[in-house]
Every structure is written in structure tokens, then in C-alpha cells.
Amino acid sequence: MIDLCYSDQVIIIIHPNNKDHQNQVNNQIDCRLRQCSMENRIDNIQKEEYNEPLSQRVARFFTGLYSIYQFTIRFFKEAFTPPYEFREIIRQCYNIGYRSLAIITLTGFITGIVFTKQSRPSLAEFGATSWLPSLISIALIRALAPLITALIAAGKIGSNIGAELGSMNVSEQIDAMEVSGTNPFKFLVVTRVLASTCMLPVLMVYAALIGLLGSYLNVHQNELTSFTTFIHDSFVRITYLDIFASVLKSTVYGFTIGITGCYQGYQAKQGTVGVGKAANSTVVISMFLIFIEEMIIVQIVNSFR
Predict the structure, then answer these.
(1) Contacts of 204 (CB under 8 A, 6+ apart)
(2) How many CB atoms lie within 10 A of CB 20?
(3) How does residue 8 score in pLDDT terms, banded at 50, 70 and 90?
(4) Where are the chain's structural domains?
(5) Where are the beta strands (DSSP E) in the chain?
(6) Any bridge partners for residue 13, and if so which?
(7) In the chain, fewer beta carbons within 10 Å around the N or the C end?
(8) Total-model pTM
């Protein structure tokens, strides 16, 4: 029988006579001491961050910006330098694109139906329900499809990248890759950023088409509009500039999500706590940057209309 009693400062052990039990007790003591040491280090780091003066916080902020700049510049250097990890890029495209189809399908379909239902009463007051297909297509292609796809990707793909690279970092798997002669930055970071950058425009187009399908079902149920008429009315107001702007936004969003998730995961510390922080920071920062980029790109595109 093994009996361990823990307190904040004392560990009381009842040693058994059996040698195997003695080894088991010693292993439990080592695990407990390592756990206590990790908890103390985390508490000390959090206290230091909370009590640090404002000047150090400002300096740490600008140091972080410079670190992000270096990380991004290194990505572009590694992305255009051979050897290229084509197989890993394809695998990441599969993980990011194909495995996100279910949630993108559900969200896009519901968005099309709900937006159509919400818009019909306002147009019906003016007798302009025939404008519904054009209204829905403009809203989906210009704004809703890129933005909703990016927000879903930030929550699903970004958090996954941050947690995955964070766990590899704190468990020293990245260091092991460097020792084995593999370039971890090219294999882990470049492949994921390129995959997210390439796959997000594809997911955006898919979400827009699914949203139009949901809108068509609602319009057909109420106005008995044929599919051919709905498609004609939907795309009659869409220009090449609208399509180009949506693809451009989705590409920028994909790059933002990929580079943010990889950076947060690559810089993760403090064990499992750091992994959780990396995943959470990736989602928050990505969404914040997505809204800023949306505002900037809309202003630029509108100057060409």
C-alpha cells in the first residue's frame, strides 16, 4: 500500500518494503516535484508580467512587433528557397480545406436562408421582392462570404495551428527536427501558411455558392422563381471587380490566419499553459486583424468603383 500526503511544503511518504513499490513512490515524488516547480515558475512569470512598469511593457510591445516582422520576412525567404515541401503543402491543404467543408457548408447555407428571410419584409414594403437575388448575391460575394469564412477559419484552423505548433515547441519536437537535419520552419510554418493562403479563397467561393443555394430555396418557396432566373438575376449586378476583391480579401485573410497561428505556436512557452495561450491568442489576434484588413481593402476597392 502506498500512501502519499501532499502539502504546500511537506511531502509525507510511507515507504513500503517492496522494491517495485519503492520505485513507484520515487517516480510519483519526482513527478510531483516537477509539477510544483513548473507551477511556481508560471506563477513567478505571471507576477513579473503583472508588476512590470509601463516602460517595460511598451518596450516588450515594440520588441514583439520586431519579432513578428522578422518572422514574416523569414517566411518569404524560406517560401521562395528550395527545397520545397510539396507533399506537406498538399497534406495541409487537405487538412485546412477538405476538413473545413462541413462547417463552411452549414454556415453558408444558414447565412443565405437567414439573410433572405430578413431582407424580404423590407423589400416587400416597396414591392421590390424581385430584387432579392441581386441583393443576396451582392451581399454574399462582396462581404459576407469572405468575412464569415475568415472568421470560421480563424476559430477552427488558426487555433489548430497555434495549438499544434505550440505543443511541438514546448515538448522540444522542433529542436529535435533541427538536430535531425530538417528545417522546421520550412516544414512546419511555410507549408501551413501557404496552405491557408491558397485554401481560404476556395472555401470563400464554396461558401458563397452554398449561400446562394440556401437563398434560392427560400426564394423559390415564396415566389416560385426558377433556378435559371435566380442565377441570372443574382449575377447580373456582379462585376469582375467584386469577384477580384473577394478573392483578394480571402487570400489576405488566409495569410493572416496562417502567419498568426504559426507565430503564436512557434513562440509558445510555459508548458501546457503556453499551448492554450497560443491557441487563444491566435483566434483573438486573427479576428482583430481580419476586421482591420476588411476596412482597409473595402476603402481601396471602393476607390475603383
Answers:
(1) 145, 146, 149, 150, 246, 247, 249, 250
(2) 8
(3) very low
(4) 3-51, 82-302
(5) 3-6, 11-14
(6) 4
(7) N
(8) 0.80
